[in-house]
Amino acid sequence: MIGKRISAVIFLVLMLAGMAATALRADLSSLGGGAELLSGQTAALAEKSFSQALPFCRQLRQLAWDTRLFSGERQADGCFISKDSILPNIPEASAPALEANIEGISHFAATNSRIPVYFALIPTVAAIRQDDLPEFSLDCVINQKGVIESVYQALGGKVSAVDVYGTLLNNNNRYLYYRTEDNLTAMGGYFVYSAIASGMGLRVRSLGDFDIQYARHDYVGSLGERFPLARVKPDIISLFHYNNNRRYQVCTTLNGATVTLDSLYDLTRLFSDEPMEVYFGRRGTMTSIRMEESPYTQKLLVFADDTALAWLPILLSHYEEVLLVDLETATQEEIRYLDTLYYDQVLFAYSTDTFMHEDYISSVSGN
User: Fold this and answer.
1) pTM for this one?
2) Taking 70 as the threshold, does the pLDDT of residue 13 lie above it?
3) Which of 121, 209, 214, 237 is positioned for an S-S bond with 205, CB 3.0–4.6 A?
């Protein structure tokens, strides 16, 4: 029965291809001989012909994609395609990068032993939503839980490890990861926050402590742009507002200049080419966030990747001041002159993908 269905779909593909080719040939036949080919009329007619045939091409491409999925092939360009999401797979860890990052954090913790240092590895969607992966795909999915445990073991006694994996897995029925972007949603960020806050000895705030603004319902991220035929619904961009009416000032170092916001969210970026910049504005090397008239006195130093966009706006509600450092763009001089003793706690938080494959985290050993 399945074979007959696939044959019918393939027949339809070929039929539409023939229709498109016939329409295209009919239009091109009117282009005439050599004189017309040398004139501007040729280009105009050709453009018109291809434009008229384009709807057929689009339909063919969509049908070919649907046929591919229907036949059970749900892997493309390093991603799994489920019924409602695009789930990136990650390759085996780079041993040199992994070792360098572990050594860098270990050296930092030893050098700054007077400050509590916390560390969280955040699993990617393929590790948490395994029920959505195609059949027989588990053999090619990295055991991220095993990697996390081995890294925590290597850093044992040097940093305080935070179990994010278990918290996300226990809530994997929620909207934790974007469907079209390789990152946590704001809701995923809340559960990462809850694990981090608990591990750092903070009182975890409930969801009821925040007003959630659903700021955009039609966001299509980079994965959606790579797979425009996947029929995946657009994502929702949400903003968490701590309902005690806290006010913040955000200062970001960007290309040698300082950009200041009087809010955690730059709503002017929401419908820009970079909608994720709604969180703290444009990303820079150093982003300092201060709570105005804060009832708190603690200061936190954070080293993190883009996962911080999801969980840091929530974690901020416990601190007077937070400095977010992007080690990917920070210079050795900037790292060396960080005044770590100014802070009460230090947090490293990275996705497993970043930590396993990018060695720039090791540069923190320069402090």
Assistant:
1) 0.82
2) no
3) 209
